[in-house]
Design goal:
The complex is a heterodimer of chains A (309) and B (222). With 309 residues, chain A is of the alpha+beta class. Helix content of chain A is 71%, strand content 9%. In chain A, helix 8 crosses helix 12 (301-307). In chain B, the strands form two sheets. In chain B, strands 6-7-8-3-9-10 form a six-stranded mixed sheet, with helices on both faces. A four-stranded antiparallel sheet of chain B has the order 2-1-4-5. The radius of gyration of chain B is 17 Å and the shape is globular. Classes of the chains: A alpha+beta (309), B alpha/beta (222). The interface between A and B is large, with 38 and 40 residues.
């Protein structure tokens, strides 16, 4: 019965590669972990960077140099609303008509329109009736936000003015240290993973010189040994990169600090980042394994089989 | 079968040159069993590696079955080795995570499908070496002698015309040594040309011809 379970023909390169991987589970696990860490840091840093860029772009595009007036104590909610388009509830406590009259009376230069928005239910907000949570001021591109803010401070002293671009940048600034740390971690992890991959490949080649020499004697070509050695690194780096990238994507989506930002990225860019991380870790693993692989392919078979068990 | 013409080999290490083989010419006829002996460093293994196209001679030509080995590309030479030459070394170098059967079938994977030995051939060989019951075992589950017999069977899988053995019986007990050598004799009787390097002078009478190497030269031939 057991004979049926065995492969029908000679073991192909894939089978030999798998057999070699099984020989050193510790090496494989270390390579897998290193690739996973590198990919996770890469996806984390690039994902956040991309998301911040998207958010900034979105804030600047949709709001331009807009200014938002609200009552004191709600600046943080308004800033987040401006940056992400999503707000926590802000009570509709402003007399919209009275504030609009005050703005009109101030004869401000560069004001295109003033809209009253109700954010009492949070989210993106809706046009307000008599009572509003905020007043959104659409400004001309040449309008001076500091001058308008200074004038408003005189005619509407109870209002707090939040400038759109500043709000966007303010919210993103909170995440900049995280991105910096992740970026450094990604660089260190990628370098570490590549070095480890090269080191493990060199150890494998050193340990298996006799077998490699025997394979050459049996008829293996240099390219076979090259593919076998590099293939082992790739076979570890690819799933490691995929696992690390997926983990980073899930964490980015679950962490409250990053979830709102990453939401704007959508599935496409995240999948792209995942593919990039896999490709980067695989390429790094393959490149690092290349010198030992070349050494394996060009070793002297006689020396290898005689001097190494 | 094997033709060497003015073949020489010198190894250079740390600025020093060591002559492994002085210019040497000779033939091994088809179906011959040649035993090569000599002291360590006499050039025995180098001679064998040259015959198998594993080491490039500094000068001279090596032909096997009329084919100049070094006129072939590396890939062609590798294919030629897989098809026509079987090697047995002192160390078996079996892959520990492949089963006995898979290790045995490995040389066939270097030839196009149908050209190398198949599973049936592998089973025949395992029957011959008395290991048919062990096909699903791993090398580390076998004794040293059993591993050696797998290595011999592996060398014979693709039905090579030439069998080159470099001290295949070193480290073996007498009984296993006899088993291995009788395998070589069987193959030789079936028409395979065998060249075997050994330190064991007791085995010499079993061969058709005996070469003694000393300092990279043939000092005695019978």
């Amino acid at each position: 019965m057991r004979a049926d379970a065995s492969p029908p023909g000679p073991p192909g390169l894939g089978r030999v590669l798998w057999a070699q991987l099984r020989r050193s589970p510790g090496h494989a696990a270390a390579g897998l972990l290193a690739a996973a860490l590198a990919a996770a840091a890469l996806v984390g840093a690039l994902g956040l960077l991309l998301a911040m860029g998207r958010t900034l772009e979105r804030g600047l595009t949709t709001l331009g140099a807009d200014m938002v007036l609200t009552l004191p104590g709600h600046e943080q909610q308004v800033m987040r609303w401006l940056a992400t388009g999503d707000a926590a509830p802000v009570p509709a406590a402003i007399d919209a008509a009275e504030w609009q009259r005050a703005i009109a009376g101030a004869e401000l230069l560069g004001v295109k329109a003033v809209e009253a928005v109700d954010l009492s239910r949070g989210g993106a907000g809706e046009p307000a009736g008599e009572r509003a949570s905020v007043l959104v001021m659409r400004l001309e591109f040449w309008a001076s936000a500091p001058m308008i803010r200074a004038t408003l401070a005189q005619v509407l002293p109870e209002a707090v003015a939040v400038v759109g671009e500043q709000a966007t940048r303010h919210v993103l600034t909170d995440l900049q240290p995280l991105v910096r740390h992740l970026g450094r971690a990604a660089a260190v992890a990628a370098l570490g993973a590549a070095l480890l991959s090269g080191l493990l490949a060199a150890i494998r080649v050193g340990e298996r010189r006799a077998e490699l020499g025997m394979l050459r004697a049996m008829g293996a070509t240099r390219s076979y040994l090259l593919v076998l050695t590099v293939g082992e690194s790739v076979a570890v780096a690819l799933p490691g990169g995929l696992a690390g990238g997926l983990l980073a994507t899930v964490v980015l989506r679950l962490l409250p600090a990053t979830a709102a930002l990453v939401r704007h990225l959508g599935a496409g860019p995240l999948l792209g980042l995942l593919a990039l991380a896999c490709a980067a870790t695989t390429a790094a693993g393959a490149l690092a394994a290349l010198p030992p692989a070349l050494q394996a392919a060009w070793l002297d078979p006689l020396d290898a089989v005689r001097r190494h068990r | 079968m094997i033709q060497l013409y003015e073949v020489s080999k010198t190894y250079r290490t740390r600025g020093q040159s060591v002559v492994a083989l002085a210019p040497l010419s000779g033939r091994v006829e088809p179906g011959e069993f040649v035993m090569v002996t000599g002291r360590s460093g006499a050039g025995k293994s180098t001679l064998l590696a040259l015959m198998g196209g594993l080491t490039r001679p500094d000068e001279g030509t090596v032909s096997v079955m009329g084919q100049d080995l070094w006129s072939l590309s590396d890939a062609e030479r590798a294919r030629f080795r897989a098809r026509h030459i079987g090697f047995v070394f002192q160390f078996t170098s079996l892959i520990p995570t492949l089963t006995v059967l898979e290790n045995l079938l490995l040389p066939a994977s270097f030839l196009p499908p149908g050209e190398g030995g198949d599973r049936q051939r592998a089973m025949e060989l395992l029957e011959r070496v008395g290991l048919a019951e062990h096909i699903h075992r791993y090398p580390w589950q076998l004794s040293g002698g059993q591993q050696k017999r797998v290595a011999v069977a592996r060398a014979l899988l693709n039905r090579p015309e030439v069998l080159l053995a470099d001290e295949p019986t070193a480290d073996l007990d007498e009984e296993t040594e006899r088993e291995v050598v009788s395998l070589f004799q069987e193959e030789n009787r079936a028409g395979t040309t065998v060249v075997m390097v050994t330190h064991s002078t007791e085995l010499v009478p079993l061969a058709h011809r005996h070469l003694v190497l000393s300092g990279g030269r043939v000092s005695h031939a019978r």
